[in-house]
Structures are given as structure tokens and as C-alpha cells.
């Protein structure tokens, strides 16, 4: 057994090393060009965004069939499911990002990337106006044959006064860094004050508004950090820290079945997380949250030292602008760009597609799972559109009526083959703290609903498997080992 174990480990190390080497040393790519060898036009696809939807599309797309341009202000892909683990250092930020350029370099043909914001799309002229990110503003227009809008969403504040100014969101890397800084500063400032000073209690009150998965997972991570690490280095202060979740509805994690909600709420309460349910925040100032109890209609004041706002999504300006241009008859959802069952933007069918959180289609929710599948689906659509284009081009240069007829039949068949998008819901997972997770999943027809430590192992292996590169998987696994053996960092 020892001998085979040794050989197995050796082969495993060789395989992983080779795979990591291959990943960081991409092969030669074919250059972009205006036309193909047969003289037909090589069409341009502009992809906006570098998130779940856009990167899934880029990874699945045969880039030798198109000139592909990616535009995103974020020059990396962010593995959001592990973002709630980063403010407290369970997972390091560098471990869950993958540069767009390295993803682009691994595709068959050259992909152009511009680090820029898309400001406006002109659906008639088929152009997108972009502005560079950085100190100076460089602006330009890009022409496209097909545009894929995958710009995601921004955190919603429901225009509640004070939210934008005083709270932190949890959507981007910079948000995680901001929360970490605020938590550490609050703790260090509180340490300067007397124990009976109400200001000390305020500074040590960490409030999460929104009991959806973002808010609940972050509160769970924060509780872990306080219990497992801060308690070792600042035992007295760690006992004074109060973590609260303020949630407008009667439950947190409402996407899960009731028994898993009950299990999570019980674990949170036992762990000392104050669940303020049926409580809707109405106003925020520098030190206090003002919320209405939905039963009694009374207003409550909740002092806070750090406020994390996680109440869901709102459309980004570029998406709103596009919706306005296409008009309320075509674009009539406040949740995002209305698309049809082939991901085409209603009002700009055939040229503009929208995927992920920026898009709205009944029954599809703003999750990574949906965005990922939509990106993959769109790659298959573009493959068929390329074949159709090639057949149309062939028809232009031949005089044989039978051949043209046969090509037209093939074209019709290919159009028919562009199936509607079918979403496969594999279920939901959430980390609830204290090395426990909940799962409501269905894989290959088998469904599993569970909670606890074993589910946490399942959660870990599922998320490790979903990481976009081997490098990410390796780094995340190392981070988890580090936390297990030597704990999280207690400084910035
Ligand atoms: P995003 O991934 O948000 O990407 C949008 C991209 O567009 C970004 O690269 C952004 O920089 C870029 N962009 C923005 N504005 C512009 C512009 N003007 N021009 C060009 N580019 C632009 N879902 C799950 O299924 N499971 C989970 O466990 C899970 N965990 C999550 C945890 C957190 C903390 C958060 C915030 C979300 C989580 N989600 C999860 C939801 C999931 O992250 C989103 O549904 C998913 O990211 C949507 O993918 P997307 O491509 O539409 O948008
Ligand atoms: P969400 O929309 O899922 O939850 C927001 C919560 O905030 C709701 O429960 C809502 O009732 C509450 N809320 C709204 N306004 C409020 C107010 N004024 N006061 C108090 N509470 C208020 O948003 P979240 O968690 O940011 O998730 C966004 C998307 O990302 C969802 O589709 C979610 O499924 C997905 N996601 C999935 C994860 C997972 O599968 N583990 C993890 C994180 C996000």
C-alpha cells in the first residue's frame, strides 16, 4: 500500500505541475483578421463584462470564428461565491481572481481586451461607446456585428437615505478590502475606550442589512473570525462584539426550504448573531440605522460601527440607458434588460444579446449558475451563426441553383437548431458558519437536502471544483489549510 501510495502521490504531483505549467504557458494563437481565407467577412463580437456570464462565453466560444473584443473595467474574473470569505481572511482575494488576459490567451484565436467602461450602446449604428479606466479618460466607439451585454448588476439601495454614504457593499474586491479595514479600525478604536462607554459598544456593533445569501454568509464568516481567531488575540473585546442581521422579511436565506432556514436561524442565534427579522431599514446616518418593525410599525434605532449592505441588485447605468433607448413597450422590467428565450435583447434581436445579472427573463434568477449556463449557451448559438454566415457567403459566389437550394435548406436547419435556452437548476448552497453549510441540490436526478459539517465538506469540494482555473483551486485549497492550521490574520 505504501509503495502504491508513493507512486500515486508522485504521479499526482507530476500531473498537477504539468497542468499548472500548461495553464501559465499558453500556446500560440491565430491572429485576428478582417476576412477568412475564403474572403468572407470575419464578424466582430464585442463582449461587455468579465464576470460569470461573459467569461463562460469566452471560454466556450470558438474564437477562431470571430474577432472577439472584451470590454470590462475589471481586468479579472472574480469568483463571487467565495467573496464573503475574503473580508475576514478565510480566503485571500488573490486566490479568487483570474486575469482576463490569461483566460483570453488560452483561447484558440487572439482576443482583444480593453480595460474600459461601456458608457452607451447605439443599437442602430451597432456601436458601443467606451471610456478607459485610469487617470486620463480616453474614449472611443467600437463597431460590432454582435454585442453581448454581460455587465452584471450593482447593489441596490432602494434610495434609502444614507446607505450610499455610510455603508459598505459586498460585490467587488474593493468592497471586501473596505469592510476588512473598517472592521479592524472599529476594533482598534474600541480598544481605546472604557468598557462602559456606549461608544465602545457602538464601534463593536457590526450590522449586516439583508438576510439573503450574501448577508448571511458574510455574517457567518465574521462570527467565525471573532470566535476562532480574534478571541485568541483580543479575548475581552471579542466577547463584546455584536453581530446583527437586519432582514425585512420573516426569514433569512428564503431561497432554501423551511427546515434548512430553521436550521440556519437556530445556528445563527445559538452562535450569538442577533437576527432582527421583519425589520425594514428606512434610513441610515453616520452612527445609527433606523428601521421599522413590520409587526408593530415602531421605529427602532440600531447603533453600528460597521454596516454591510446586502439587499440585492439594481441595473447598471449602461443597461438602463439601453432600456430607455429601446423604449418601455420593449423594455418594461425594472429588474434588467428584457431578453427572449434565445438571450436576444427584446427590441434589438439578431445583434444584441444580454446574459447574467443585467438580463431579465421570467424564472431566471441573478445567480452565477444562471449566468454561467447562459454564457455557455450563447457560445453554441454563435457557432451556428458562423456556419450560417459561411453558407450564405458560399451562395453569393455560386450559380448552381441546386447547390444554392441545398445550402438554403442547411441554413434553415441550422436556424431551427438554435434551441431555446434551457436552464438546469442544480440547487443552492450556503455557508452558515461554525464549519457548517446548507445544501438543497439535485445532481443527475438525485436530490439532496442537508445541513451540517458533512454538508460543509460538500460545499468546499463543490466550490473548489467550480473555481475557474487550477491556479485558483490550488490557492483556495492552500488558504483553507492555512486557516485550519495557523488561523486567519488579525491585521490588515
Ligand atoms: P458579474 O459577475 O457581476 O460581472 C459583471 C462584469 O461586468 C464585471 O466584470 C464588471 O466589472 C463588468 N462591468 C460592469 N460595468 C461595466 C460596464 N459599464 N462596461 C463593461 N463592463 C462592465 N451566485 C451563485 O450562483 N452562487 C453563489 O454562491 C453566489 N455567491 C455570491 C456571493 C456574493 C458575495 C455575490 C455578490 C454574488 C454571489 N452570487 C452567487 C451571484 C453571482 O455572483 C452573480 O449572479 C454573477 O456574478 C452574475 O454574473 P454576471 O456575469 O452577470 O455579472
Ligand atoms: P437577495 O436579493 O438574495 O437578498 C436581499 C435581502 O435583503 C432580502 O431577503 C430582502 O428581504 C432584504 N432587504 C431588502 N431591503 C431591505 C431593507 N430595507 N431592510 C432590511 N432588509 C432588506 O440579495 P443577495 O444576498 O445580495 O443576493 C443577490 C443574488 O446573488 C441572489 O440571486 C442570490 O441568490 C445570489 N447569491 C447566491 C449565493 C449562494 O447561492 N450561496 C450567495 C450570494 C448571492
TrEMBL record:
Positions of transmembrane segments: 1-21
Catalytic activity line of the entry: a quinone + NADH + H(+) = a quinol + NAD(+); a ubiquinone + NADH + H(+) = a ubiquinol + NAD(+)
Keyword annotations: FAD, Flavoprotein, Membrane, Mitochondrion, NAD, Oxidoreductase, Transit peptide, Transmembrane, Transmembrane helix
Chain ranges of the External alternative NADH-ubiquinone oxidoreductase-like C-terminal domain: 425-489
Subcellular location: Mitochondrion
InterPro entries hit by this protein: FAD/NAD-bd_sf, FAD/NAD-binding_dom, NDH-2, NDH2-like_C
Pfam family, one: Pyr_redox_2
Gene Ontology terms describing biological process: energy derivation by oxidation of organic compounds
Domain spans labelled FAD/NAD(P)-binding: 44-375
Example GO molecular function: NADH dehydrogenase (quinone) (non-electrogenic) activity
EC number of the protein: 1.6.5.9
The protein's name in its UniProt record: NADH:ubiquinone reductase (non-electrogenic)
Originating species: Maudiozyma exigua (Yeast)
GN (gene name): NDE1
Amino acid at each position: 500500500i505504501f509503495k502504491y501510495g508513493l507512486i500515486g502521490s508522485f504521479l499526482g504531483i507530476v500531473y498537477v505541475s504539468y497542468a499548472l505549467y500548461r495553464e501559465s504557458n499558453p500556446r500560440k494563437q491565430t491572429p485576428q483578421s478582417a476576412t477568412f481565407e475564403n474572403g468572407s467577412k470575419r464578424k466582430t463580437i464585442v463582449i461587455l463584462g468579465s464576470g460569470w456570464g461573459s467569461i463562460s462565453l469566452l471560454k466556450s466560444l470558438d474564437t477562431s470564428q470571430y474577432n472577439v473584443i472584451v470590454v470590462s473595467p475589471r481586468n479579472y474574473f472574480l469568483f463571487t461565491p467565495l467573496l464573503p470569505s475574503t473580508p475576514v481572511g478565510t480566503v485571500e482575494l488573490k486566490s479568487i481572481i483570474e486575469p482576463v488576459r490569461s483566460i483570453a490567451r488560452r483561447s484558440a484565436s487572439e482576443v482583444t481586451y480593453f480595460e474600459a467602461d461601456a458608457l452607451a450602446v447605439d443599437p442602430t449604428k451597432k456601436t458601443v461607446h467606451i471610456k478607459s479606466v485610469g487617470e486620463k479618460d480616453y474614449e472611443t466607439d467600437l463597431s460590432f456585428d454582435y454585442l453581448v451585454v454581460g455587465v452584471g448588476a450593482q447593489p441596490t439601495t432602494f434610495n434609502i437615505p444614507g446607505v450610499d454614504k455610510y455603508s459598505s457593499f459586498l460585490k467587488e474586491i474593493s468592497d471586501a478590502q473596505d469592510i476588512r479595514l473598517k472592521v479592524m479600525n472599529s476594533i482598534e478604536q474600541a480598544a481605546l475606550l472604557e468598557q462602559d462607554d456606549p461608544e465602545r459598544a457602538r464601534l463593536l456593533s457590526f450590522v449586516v442589512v439583508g438576510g439573503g445569501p450574501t448577508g448571511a454568509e458574510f455574517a457567518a464568516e465574521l462570527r467565525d473570525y471573532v470566535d476562532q481567531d480574534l478571541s485568541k488575540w483580543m479575548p475581552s473585546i471579542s466577547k463584546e462584539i455584536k453581530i446583527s442581521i437586519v432582514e425585512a422579511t420573516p426569514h433569512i436565506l428564503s431561497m432554501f426550504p423551511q427546515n434548512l432556514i430553521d436550521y440556519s436561524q437556530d445556528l445563527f442565534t445559538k452562535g450569538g448573531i442577533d437576527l432582527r427579522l421583519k425589520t425594514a431599514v428606512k434610513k441610515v446616518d453616520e452612527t445609527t440605522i433606523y428601521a421599522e418593525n413590520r409587526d408593530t410599525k415602531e421605529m427602532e434605532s440600531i447603533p453600528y460601527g460597521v454596516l454591510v449592505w446586502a439587499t440585492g441588485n439594481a441595473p447598471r447605468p449602461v443597461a438602463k440607458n439601453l432600456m430607455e433607448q429601446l423604449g418601455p413597450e420593449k423594455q418594461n422590467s425594472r429588474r434588467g434588460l428584457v431578453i427572449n428565450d434565445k438571450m436576444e435583447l427584446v427590441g434589438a434581436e439578431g445583434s444584441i444579446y444580454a446574459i447574467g445579472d443585467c438580463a431579465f427573463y421570467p424564472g431566471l434568477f441573478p445567480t452565477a449558475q444562471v449566468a454561467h449556463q447562459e454564457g455557455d449557451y450563447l457560445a453554441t448559438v454563435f457557432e451556428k451563426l458562423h456556419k450560417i454566415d459561411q453558407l450564405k457567403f458560399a451562395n453569393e459566389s455560386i450559380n448552381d441553383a441546386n447547390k444554392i437550394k441545398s445550402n438554403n435548406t442547411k441554413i434553415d436547419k441550422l436556424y431551427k437548431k438554435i434551441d431555446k435556452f434551457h436552464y438546469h437548476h442544480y440547487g443552492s448552497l450556503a455557508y452558515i458558519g461554525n464549519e457548517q453549510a446548507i445544501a438543497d441540490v439535485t445532481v443527475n436526478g438525485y436530490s439532496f437536502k442537508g445541513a451540517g459539517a458533512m454538508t460543509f465538506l460538500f460545499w468546499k469540494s463543490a466550490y473548489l471544483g467550480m473555481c475557474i482555473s487550477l491556479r485558483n483551486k490550488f490557492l483556495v485549497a492552500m488558504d483553507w489549510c492555512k486557516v485550519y492550521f495557523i488561523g486567519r490574520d488579525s491585521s490588515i
